[in-house]
């Protein structure tokens, strides 16, 4: 089922419906395409307590064509817990609406793996947050009975890079104080309503109305894709450049190693420690600090201040990874 708009042609994968995800008009892909942009809405920030309530992805085939995957998910959490969460006040997905949706299950996992297959780049704004929740959802599914493999292992076997548009924005627009998606929309003068016009309006009670408001995951990915076009132009980058440069991206295998260093530091081998240092050097080399300063080899003091700042002001899986990489880099530089 294809829908036409003035700016995009897209396929809508509707909740609860089973159909081939590649059932769309043939589009000749351009160099660097396709790539994925994805986002989630959740019941909160905790990977242990909270769950995904909406997962949206677009597979960008060219600057004018994309396919869409969009699912609402029943978090199977108490109604009172959902209503009292700060997240509900942001995305406004009512528990009664979500209770009508399916919990995250095998069919979701199969469709997600199919949509992500043969993709080299997956973009997201603060992408590690959303990736962490997706990994948790796959982990909670347990083992695929047909293959005998854990679902999460099948997800992590996909060979793509996670690219963080927030990290890219920090370098592209050092004059900004904040790098929320709403800040970038304002800075780049992006018309949210126009960009999200292709998103179908769902008027169910307690569901979204899709009027171009952020914190609807599908609207967010459509807007993020416009941000990506601007970032590529501003930074004079191509997707091939991102393939060679890890300043803005993470390989899934690298994330597993970093998480190992966070959760079980004594089990990290000398070879893994050396690899972690290399990852940290590349990832931290263009991080921005207050007053627009960038890291140099002599900036160990700034690294230490930034670790203290993140611990005091921020929280989440992405922040844990940043802290660990900074501490690895501090240790490496003090030993030289």
UniProtKB/TrEMBL annotation:
<dbReference type="GO" id="GO:0008408">
    <property type="term" value="F:3'-5' exonuclease activity"/>
</dbReference>
<dbReference type="Pfam" id="PF00929">
    <property type="entry name" value="RNase_T"/>
</dbReference>
<dbReference type="InterPro" id="IPR013520">
    <property type="entry name" value="Ribonucl_H"/>
</dbReference>
<keyword id="KW-0540">Nuclease</keyword>
<protein>
    <recommendedName>
        <fullName>Exonuclease domain-containing protein</fullName>
    </recommendedName>
</protein>
<dbReference type="InterPro" id="IPR012337">
    <property type="entry name" value="RNaseH-like_sf"/>
</dbReference>
<feature type="domain" description="Exonuclease">
    <location>
        <begin position="34"/>
        <end position="237"/>
    </location>
</feature>
<dbReference type="InterPro" id="IPR036397">
    <property type="entry name" value="RNaseH_sf"/>
</dbReference>
<keyword id="KW-0378">Hydrolase</keyword>
<dbReference type="GO" id="GO:0003676">
    <property type="term" value="F:nucleic acid binding"/>
</dbReference>
<keyword id="KW-0269">Exonuclease</keyword>
């Amino acid at each position: 089922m294809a829908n036409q708009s003035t700016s995009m042609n897209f396929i809508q994968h509707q909740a609860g419906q089973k159909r081939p995800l590649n059932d769309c008009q043939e589009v000749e892909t351009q160099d660097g395409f396709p790539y994925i942009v994805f986002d989630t809405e959740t019941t909160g920030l905790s990977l242990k307590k909270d769950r995904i309530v909406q997962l949206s992805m677009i597979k960008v085939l060219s600057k004018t064509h994309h396919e869409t995957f969009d699912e609402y998910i029943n978090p199977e959490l108490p109604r009172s817990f959902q209503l009292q969460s700060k997240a509900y006040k942001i995305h406004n997905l009512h528990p009664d609406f979500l209770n009508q949706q399916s919990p995250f299950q095998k069919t979701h996992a199969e469709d997600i793996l199919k949509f992500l297959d043969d993709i080299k780049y997956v973009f997201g704004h603060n992408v590690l947050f959303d990736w962490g929740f997706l990994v948790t959802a796959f982990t909670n599914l347990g083992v695929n009975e047909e293959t005998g493999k854990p679902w999460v292992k099948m997800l992590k076997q996909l060979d793509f890079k996670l690219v963080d548009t927030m990290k890219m924005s920090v370098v592209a627009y050092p004059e900004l104080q904040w790098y929320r998606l709403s800040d970038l929309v304002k800075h780049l003068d992006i018309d949210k309503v126009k960009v999200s016009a292709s998103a179908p309006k769902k008027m169910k009670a307690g569901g979204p109305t899709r009027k171009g408001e952020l914190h609807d995951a599908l609207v967010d990915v459509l807007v993020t894709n416009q941000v990506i076009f601007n970032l590529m132009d501003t930074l004079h980058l191509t997707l091939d450049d991102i393939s060679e440069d890890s300043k803005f991206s993470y390989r899934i295998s690298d994330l597993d190693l970093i998480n190992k260093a966070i959760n079980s530091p004594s089990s990290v081998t000398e070879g893994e420690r050396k690899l972690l240092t290399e990852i940290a050097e590349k990832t931290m080399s263009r991080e921005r600090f207050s007053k627009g300063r960038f890291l140099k080899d002599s900036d160990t003091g700034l690294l230490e201040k930034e670790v203290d700042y993140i611990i005091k002001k921020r929280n989440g899986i992405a922040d844990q990874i940043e802290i660990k990489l900074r501490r690895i880099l501090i240790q490496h530089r003090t030993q030289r």
